[in-house]
Amino acid sequence: MSTNKPRTLSEWWFRTGRFAVSHAFLAVVALTMLLPFLWMVFASFKPLNEIQQFNLNPLPVNWQPSNYTDVLNNKDISFKRYYFNSVFVAAWVTLLTCFTSSLAAFAFARLRWPGRDHVFKLYLATMMIPGVVTMIPNYTLMVKMHLLDSYIGLIVPAAFSAFGTFLLRQFMLTIPPSLDEAATIDGASAWQVYWDVILPLARPGLIVLSIFTFMGNYGSFFWPLVLIKSEHLRTLPIGMLYFDTVYGRQTNLIMAASVMNILPLVILFILMQKYLVQGIQLGAVKG
Amino acid sequence: MKRRNRLVLGTALCFLLPNFLGFLVFTLFPVLFSLGAAFTNWNLMKTVSFQWVGIGNFAKLFSDHDFWLYFINTIYFMLGMPVAIAASLFLAILLSQRLRGMVAYRTLFYLPSFTSGVALLILWKALYNPNFGPINVIIESVLQWLHLGHIEPPTWLSSTKNLLALSAERVDIVASQFGLGARDAIIIMGIWTAAGGGNMLLYLAGISNIPPELYEAASIDGAGRWAQFRHVTWPQLAPTTFFIVIMSVIGGLQGGFEQARVMTLGGPAGTTTTLSYYIYTKAFEEFQIGYASAVAWVLFTIVFAITLVNWRFGSRYVNE
Amino acid sequence: MKYVFLGSFIVMTLLSVAAWMWRPGGRDDDRVEIVWVCDDNPVRREQIDLFNRLNPQYHLRLDPQNMGMEKTIVQCLAGVGPDIFDCYSGFQLTAFVRSGIAYDCTEAFQARGIDIFKVWPCLLPLVRYEERVYGHPGNGGGPALWFNKAIFDAAGEPYPKSDWTWREFLPIAKRLTKFDSRGRPIQFGLMMGTWDWIGVFLGQWNATIYTPEGTRCVLDSPEACAAAQFYQDLIHTHHVLPSPTEELAMATAGGWGSGTISLFGAGRGAMAVGGRWWLCMLRGKDYAHLRLGAVEIPAGPSRRLFGYGRASLINAKSPNRDGALAFLEYLHGPDWNNLINRQADALAPVMAYNYTDDFLHNPEHPEEDYNAVWRAALEDAVPFEVSPYVNGQFVDRVFLKQGDFLRERIKTGAEAMRDAARAINEAIVEQIRGDPELKDRYFQALAAGARPAWDRPEDAP
Q: Which helix (H) or strand (E) holds B283?
């Protein structure tokens, strides 16, 4: 924000004080976010009777890392396969969503064509219907298209989201039109404006959309539950049902499974963050 | 002139087509289907003979006691929305200063969004534990420190009390129901999850797009930090805010499903049942998918109306 | 940016190839595959493996679901349902039958010599509707009282005896309920799950949910009100049963339903109303230190209890009907029934197998000397009532809501039961109003002397 060098000592103190206060505040908030998560990680190393015990001591007395191997090597469910499936499906959905949504968002944000705003309102409107009631017609469609019990059935319906289009359109609206005009004057076609000018600048938006889409799809439960019948196509949320049944909840194993569940999301997030930062810096030196 | 229009239309179609085709098939078709279903008495298990009932479902809805109860619950849960959005904006502003450890903070703030499902349920039951959970331990310590030790800390997840003293049985305000209960626990949970989450990222990305020259120009003109915020940051973030508010309204009115399904089963005594969970139980437990569709479409109408208002109000700030 | 896109596409394509190659090969034997949708857990696996060993021409496979019906409904409606699916209540059976999803096995059973009346009587409504049979129960059980011997020993209390009553129970339970110096609960005399009060108290107080024809909900009867009040009193007057807040306070993990098992297993309760299927968890190594006993639930005005169970039904559209029928035959036979008894997955559905010495004494678990108690509970059990005029799952929700009010002491037993009856009767009226066929049946029943669901003539549909 302000990059002027401090001129006086008092300004320096003011600046440092502000930084210190910001840091302190952020640290406190971060701690409240982190602690429950830490509790979960510690719980994943506890044997079951320690979780039942009632102390809020987060650290396990008897470390039981075998919780993790119990989950991964469980002979009844192939956790590794489910892991792969969840990541694979979510990755495809994210890629397809980013691609088709950015194309459509460009059409909504930058091109003028008759009926544009009405179609956009239609997009918006469809997001407002709760998904529960659209599940049955969607499912029947999958059956008719013979996409039941397949990767494609998991990927394709989720890949066309009005949400992505909406998000990216808003992003593209913040990009100054002067850049487009400069490119068009230089003789660029619409595709070139999209591919060479807008897309790179919309990068923060794409990053955010990727994160949202991946996380949303990674945790989806109902759709894979009814669509998938074969064991090798199951996703993680379905696989975790094994540990959470009427006969009881094996909490320590659920915690271990959940920590492993979250790991790809955290990794994805940390990786994507770098590009978000780059996007911020790039935005700062735009000319 | 006409030729250029056709050219633009053609180009636009090429860009639009992949997404639009998928949209037609996988989004619009099911939505229209459910609209049709809302006018029938379609029973999922076909235990009742199929009939068109016209607006019968909608009429039934308005006199449905449970519908209004859960509608109030849904609105109540949205009370936390402005707090969450403001928190996201605040955190985003803090994080876009050139402080060290940005990446670490961002990841930490986003952590709550990663946890979901059974793990989250277990976590929150532990946190909201009436005797030993950290939340009540802190509350008790504060009360002791204020010499108010005789006041009982709230019982959260098992209580039907709430900040607006709403009754659990009818649409009414009953003094004895004032307090902090399951509904408030869920709101707080929602704020905690959302504050550092997607909205914060969106604001971060939006702030990153603000040209620094605007700030320099403003400070040259003598604007202080608050004025800079009001005249540069806030208007520049308008499209982002617009998006966030609309998505929050949509999400809020459709929300509460996961918590109800996994954690509270809609209880205690139906106080954490939102309309989307009600739709689910009507469709899959009572098999009344016609009626459930009608409720879904009433929900849609409300959201649509609010969005239109937002659009009209917001488009003054967004230059299109 | 564009390189990121292109790069990602290439990576994903490569992964897709990998995924396709990692596909499990088609079965190289010619076993017919049968799909069974049920909840997944370790005991289920053993049950399936046994079937596959006994029937090498079939391969039975599990497709997991949670306890809801959504998966079965959605799949069956679209015509792609499993071959076998499970049903947990009489109401679910009627729903499956009336929607045409369940297959009528009556003739097939006769051909294979399966006599459905050999199963426990309380399980019959799970498979039998209007004199026709649609499946076979997989297990059955009734509630009895678990007790923690260590807690009794520490308190110097003698172990409970079979023929005790609630009056004798109360002082013992009070002595076994402990709070710490700050008034926080450490241990309770009794624990019960969210739904158990219905099966135990409404049962023992001789309350019925509906009139015999199912035309009216009679939960507002004095018996039901007294039963509900006793339940509330156990929590708030005698303080031997934890309130929801107290239960939450003692819990660190484990959610609803299974929470009672976790709490009891953690030694928070001296006694707990539960089922024999608890052993599936409690035999685990995490609970090896527990010394358990079981005894019949103290007697109320009677010993009547509501039983429960799980039945497997056949999908009418299944292409593998023979295989599915072979599975049901397996459920009727000695292998399955003895396995269930050994696994302690409640009790075997066919009565005869519960009267053997093997059942009473499992050599792998000699400490389980209480199997006769679980059998006695089933002997006392009557089936949970179903009315053809109202949706059973709606009734469950009403019970849940009013139960919450009872537990939180927001309503008295009588108020809660009266409100429950009113809600259910309104639902009955609503249901028959919308369905002409049902309406005819209803009015025929009324003409034969049944009580209607309304009190004033103007409320009639």
A: helix B275-284
- SS3 letters across C175-206: HCCEECCCCCEEEEEEECCCCHHHHHHHHHCC
Q: Which residues of C touch B130 (CB under 8 A)?
A: 245, 248-249
- Other beta carbons less than 10 A from residue A263's beta carbon: 13
DSSP per-residue letters across chain A: ---PPP-SHHHHHHHHHHHHHHHHHHHHHHHHHHHHHHHHHHHTTS-HHHHHS-----S-SS--THHHHHHHT-SSS-HHHHHHHHHHHHHHHHHHHHHHHHHHHHHHHT---TTHHHHHHHHHHHTTS-HHHHHHHHHHHHHHTT-TTSHHHHHHHHH--HHHHHHHHHHHHTS-HHHHHHHHHTT--HHHIIIIIIHHHTHHHHHHHHHHHHHHHHT--HHHHHH--SGGG--HHHHGGGGEETTEE-HHHHHHHHHHHHHHHHHHHHHHHHHHHHHHHHHHT--
The string of pLDDT tens digits covering residues C333-385 is: 999 999 999 998 899 999 999 999 888 888 888 888 899 999 999 998 999 99
Cβ distance C393 to B269 less than 8 Å, yes or no, reads: no
Cβ distance of A173 and B11 shorter than 8 Å: no
Chains near A, with 3+ CB pairs < 8 A?
B, C
Q: Does residue C48 fall inside a structural domain?
A: yes
Residues of chain A with Cβ-Cβ distance to B213 below 8 Å are none
- Does residue B147 come out as left (phi exceeding 0), alpha (psi in the -120 to 50 range) or beta? left
User: pLDDT value at position A1?
Assistant: 43
Structural domains counted in chain C: 1
Any domain includes C185 = no
Strand segments (E) across C287-349: 292-295, 305-306, 308-314
- DSSP label of B100: T
Average pLDDT along chain B: 82
Domain that holds residue C119: 32-141+307-365
What is the separation of C-alpha A121 from the centre of its chain, rounded to a whole number of angstroms?
25
C89 secondary structure, DSSP code:
S
Cross-chain residue pair B111–A33, CB shorter than 8 Å: yes
Residue C351: give its domain's CATH number. 3.40.190.10
Residue C32, H or E segment = strand C32-38
The ipTM (two decimal places) reads 0.84
Q: What is the pLDDT along chain B (320 residues), one digit of tens a residue?
A: 455 555 667 777 788 888 888 888 988 898 898 898 888 888 876 656 677 888 888 888 888 888 999 999 898 888 889 999 999 998 888 888 776 777 788 888 888 887 777 777 777 777 888 877 778 888 888 888 888 777 788 888 888 888 888 887 878 888 888 888 888 888 888 888 888 887 888 888 788 778 888 888 888 888 777 888 888 888 888 888 888 888 888 888 887 787 787 777 777 888 889 998 999 888 888 888 888 999 999 988 888 888 788 778 766 655 44
Q: Looking at the domain assignment, is residue C360 inside a domain?
A: yes
Instruction: With CA atoms as reference, report the closest residue to B75 among B287, B276, B289.
Output: B276
Residue type at C419 in one-letter notation: D
Chain A contact for C49 (CB, 8 A cutoff)? no
Counting every residue written for chain B, the total comes to 320
Is C240 among the domain residues?
no
Which of chain B's residues have a Cβ under 8 Å away from the Cβ of A56?
Answer: 126, 132-134
Domain regions of chain B by residue span: 1-27, 38-116+180-314
Lowest mean pLDDT among C246-260, C327-341, C399-413: C246-260
Residue C441 CB partners (closer than 8 Å, separation 6+): C388
Instruction: List, for residues A207-259, the tens digit of each pLDDT value.
Output: 888 888 898 888 888 888 888 888 888 888 888 877 777 666 777 888 888 88
Q: Return the CATH fold of B38-116+180-314.
A: MetI-like fold (1.10.3720)
Backbone angles phi, psi at A150, to 5 degrees: -145, 160
